[in-house]
Design goal:
A: alpha/beta, B: alpha+beta, Beta Polymerase, domain 2, globular
Chain lengths: 169, 192
């Protein structure tokens, strides 16, 4: 005999109507289709590709639509070593992304500069753009990236969206 | 023909300009007395001796010595299978020598890299910009007197750099140590 939980949507009682908060609903829409901007700069990008491919399949979490245009993407995945020369381009692309936007710093280099303590490498992409989730690893395995994505989804779900919208309106 | 014979031919042609060919582990090096004539020598090596492939151009900083710079050209003939190294010294005051783009077009990026990293200019280069660092960066980072961590710079609206935190480093490995503790990366002074 199937068990029944007390909470949740019950079509027999509620019909086609669902009661929820508007920012919970809007955030739910957002978090389940975070389109990534693949900022692949080094070997982390290979793991990012693996995360997108069939074995790890990032589309299970609604993030399979890698957009190579910043205007169509929600989350920038900075995968790799950010040199000072590339930093200007990364910042520019981030600025071109439409709000709302998030950033995942994937791997040691993007998070802190990693092993590159040298004149040419930016010591963490958070020096130029705000980062939401950092992923450890050199490079991180695809599971780690998926975990970061789930963490980001949780963060998106709990954003005070309605308040922000009212403030900007 | 061997690389040594090709080197002798260059010496016969240019005489005192070219040093006696030096061999080390089967590789032949010749040195120019006057860097101003590098393009001429390269032209001869390519047109007459068949060194049609410029493998690389590299530069050395003999810090504390005069002349400070050495520029090394690595030549290869695809048909004759020989490799030849041509070196030329450049003084720090001058820091300039003629381009060899007229001989091998591939020299373009090699020379830009040397200009970017070492600050040696190539006269006649059509596009002598930085290639690895951002345009406007004020230093030449491969020079011996430039710190590994870099120096802070700020060009408003363009780019910036900060000195990297070395946290006690640079950490240097010592290959050939008797155990892993000896070999692993540690802070080492020059005396060790």
């Amino acid at each position: 005999m199937p068990t029944r939980s007390e909470i949740g949507y019950d079509s027999k009682i509620e019909g086609d109507v669902i009661a929820t908060r508007i920012d919970a609903a809007l955030n739910w829409f957002r978090k389940n289709s975070l389109w990534p901007m693949p900022m692949g700069l080094a070997c982390c990008a290979i793991e990012l590709m693996a995360a997108g491919a069939s074995r790890f399949d990032i589309s299970r979490f609604g993030s399979e639509v890698m957009r190579f245009s910043p205007r169509q993407s929600d989350v920038m995945i900075v995968a790799g070593t950010v040199t000072y020369k590339m930093a200007t381009a990364v910042k520019r692309i981030y600025d071109q992304m439409a709000e709302p936007k998030w950033v995942i710093a994937m791997g040691a280099c993007a998070s802190t500069g990693g092993m590159y303590r040298s004149y040419s490498v930016l010591q963490g992409v958070d020096n130029i753009i705000p980062v939401d989730v950092y992923v450890a690893g050199c490079p991180p395995r695809p599971e780690a990236l998926l975990d970061a994505l789930i963490k980001l989804q949780n963060q998106v779900q709990h954003e005070p969206l309605l308040e922000t919208l009212k403030k900007t309106a | 023909m061997t690389a040594l014979e090709f080197a002798q031919q260059i010496k016969t042609k240019f005489g005192d300009l070219i040093s006696e060919p030096a061999g080390f582990r089967g590789e032949i090096t010749i040195k120019l007395a006057n860097a101003e004539r590098i393009a001429e020598v390269c032209e001869f090596a390519r047109k007459e001796l068949g060194f049609d492939y410029l493998v690389d151009i590299s530069s050395l900083d003999n810090y504390g010595e005069d002349p400070r710079w050495t520029v090394a050209y690595h030549l290869r003939g695809l048909a004759n299978g020989c490799e030849l190294r041509v070196k030329a010294d450049v003084s720090e005051e001058k820091s300039e020598l003629p381009t060899v783009i007229g001989v091998w077009r591939t020299a373009n990026w090699h020379e830009r890299e040397i200009y970017d990293m070492m600050g040696i200019r190539f006269r006649g280069h059509p596009d002598l910009r930085r290639i690895l660092m951002w345009e406007g960066y004020p230093y030449f980072p491969l020079r011996k007197d430039f710190p590994l961590a870099g120096k802070p710079t700020q060009i408003p609206e363009v780019a910036f750099t900060q000195a990297a935190p070395l946290e006690g480093g640079p950490f240097v490995t010592a290959p050939g140590g008797k155990d892993a503790i000896e070999r692993e990366p540690r802070v080492r002074t020059a005396e060790e």
